[in-house]
């Protein structure tokens, strides 16, 4: 971790991918584990597929919700280009968890720019990178919208937060008809190698 008292997790993606719900679950798990928790989010043009970020910080005492450049212990990215856009916030010893998913920006769709071909190589310059096929796993479970919870499940095994707390918060965070799907998504992510 970047220091002995505060854990910093940055969640990034595009509108509609569930970044806010992901960060709400993460913050609640840390809070219920007895930590002081601060959270901040930026929605951008989220309803139009724009960038969405959420900072979650917890520890004995947290004074600010914002993670400064080079201080994120973990970045969890639901879209590859968003991972690259915010990789500079990762601590040199940090971990970048990247969903294997691309959403082409309007400038790429219209031919005004190209989607970077060297994202993997560029991401490795920032720290440990774990690629997760969260969208594919969620699709196999029956709903691609559970991708955010697949990645949370993967992240859960790297954090010092009891797994029972994750399951409890997930049960509280979804309507009854989506609880089982999201519990399976969390289990699937936690079961991945890495």
Keywords for this structure?
194 residues; alpha/beta; Pyruvate-ferredoxin Oxidoreductase, domain 3; 6 strands; 39% helix
What does this structure look like?
The protein has 194 residues and is of the alpha/beta class. It has a single domain, classed as Pyruvate-ferredoxin oxidoreductase, PFOR, domain III (Pyruvate-ferredoxin Oxidoreductase, domain 3), CATH 3.40.920.10. The protein has eight helices and six strands. A six-stranded mixed beta sheet has the order 2-3-1-4-5-6, with helices on both faces. Strand 4, helix 2 and strand 5 form a beta-alpha-beta unit. The longest helix has 15 residues, at 176-190. The radius of gyration is 16 Å and the shape is globular. The two termini are 17 Å apart. The model has no long low-confidence stretch (mean pLDDT 92).
Our estimate of the beta-strand percent is 15-25%
Strand order, largest beta sheet: 2-3-1-4-5-6
Q: Which bin fits the share of residues in helices? A: 25-40%
Task: Give the terminus-to-terminus CA distance.
Answer: 17 Å
Q: What would you call the shape?
A: globular
Q: Please give the count of helices.
A: 8
Order of helices and strands: EHEEEHEHHEHHHH
Helix vs. strand class: alpha/beta
CATH class category label: Alpha Beta
Radius of gyration based on Cα positions? 16 Å
Secondary structure tally: strands? 6
Please name the fourth-level CATH homologous superfamily.
Answer: Pyruvate-ferredoxin oxidoreductase, PFOR, domain III
Largest sheet: 6 strands, mixed
CATH architecture: 3-Layer(aba) Sandwich
């Amino acid at each position: 971790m970047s220091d002995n008292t505060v854990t910093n997790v940055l969640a990034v993606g595009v509108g509609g991918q569930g970044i806010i719900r992901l960060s709400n679950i993460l913050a609640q798990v840390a809070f219920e584990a007895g930590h002081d928790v601060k959270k901040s989010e930026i929605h951008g043009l989220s309803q139009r597929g724009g960038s969405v970020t959420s900072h979650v910080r917890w520890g004995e005492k947290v004074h600010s919700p914002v993670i400064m450049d080079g201080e994120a212990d973990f970045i969890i990215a639901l879209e590859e280009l968003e991972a690259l856009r915010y990789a500079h916030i990762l601590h040199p010893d940090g971990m970048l968890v990247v969903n294997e998913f691309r959403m082409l920006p309007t400038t790429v769709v219209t031919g005004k720019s190209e989607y970077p071909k060297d994202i993997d190589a560029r991401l490795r310059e920032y720290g440990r990178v774990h690629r997760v096929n969260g969208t594919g796993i969620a699709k196999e479970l029956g709903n691609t919208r559970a991708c955010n919870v697949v990645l949370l499940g993967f992240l859960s095994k790297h954090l010092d937060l009891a797994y029972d707390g994750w399951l409890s918060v997930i049960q509280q965070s979804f309507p009854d008809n989506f609880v089982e799907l999201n519990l399976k998504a969390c289990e699937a992510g936690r079961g991945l190698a890495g």
